[in-house]
Specification:
The protein is built from six helices and eight strands; from the N terminus they run ββαααβββαβαββα. The protein is α+β, with helices and mostly antiparallel strands and 186 residues long. The chain has an eight-stranded mixed beta sheet with strand order 1-2-3-4-5-6-8-7, sandwiched between helices. β7 and β8 form a beta hairpin.
Length: 186
């Protein structure tokens, strides 16, 4: 089995359909925090829906159009990162994330997203990595900043969530910027 150490007892691993029960248990712990800003928690409510979501990402990975990874902390699934969109033809992808409350404030999402971005740019030749986030999701906006992304703009009231239209911020990072930053980080 493959796992990438993230430090401090954390690992990044593929989140595959056979982990549906574990994913559902995690989502039950994360539901209130995750549902605040994205629909992922609402999509995972029982074993069948957990398996369906993970299977859809397995199919995306097979089609080279997306991937999903879990973040484990001390052997417990506590969050994840994903390529919601991955288009090798255009060289564009979108990274997303979620985390349960017990794992917040440790830098886990930032470290995991760095692994994904580095792989996308260096291994797959992606030109542009996007991060789309509700303006109300200040924790995720801070991750985009820590990753060195640039705020491209705001899509005003573009995303209906829980009966309220949300502003969506678009953040991005170009491969040249990522490589320049990697060269200066040591």
């Amino acid at each position: 089995m493959f796992a990438i150490p993230l430090g401090d007892g954390a690992e990044l691993r593929p989140l595959e359909p056979w982990r549906a029960e574990e994913f559902l248990a995690h989502m039950d712990r994360a539901r209130d925090l995750v549902d605040e800003h994205i629909k992922l928690a609402a999509a995972v409510t029982d074993p069948a829906s957990a398996r369906a979501l993970l299977t859809s990402y397995a199919e995306k990975q097979a089609a080279d159009s997306g991937r999903i990874y879990g973040i484990w902390l001390d052997s417990t699934l506590v969050g994840g990162v994903l390529f919601r969109l991955f288009d090798a033809t255009t060289g564009n992808c979108e990274v997303g994330c979620w985390l349960e409350p017990a794992a917040t404030g440790r830098g886990l999402v930032t470290r995991a997203a760095r692994v994904l971005i580095d792989w996308a740019v260096e291994e797959r030749g992606m030109h542009r990595v996007e991060w789309q986030v509700s303006s109300a999701n200040t924790a995720s906006v801070k991750v985009a900043r820590r990753l060195g992304m640039t705020r491209d703009g705001v899509l005003r009231e573009s995303y209906p969530h829980r009966g309220v239209r949300q502003d969506t911020e678009i953040w991005s990072l170009l491969a040249s910027e990522w490589r320049e930053r990697a060269g200066t980080d040591g």
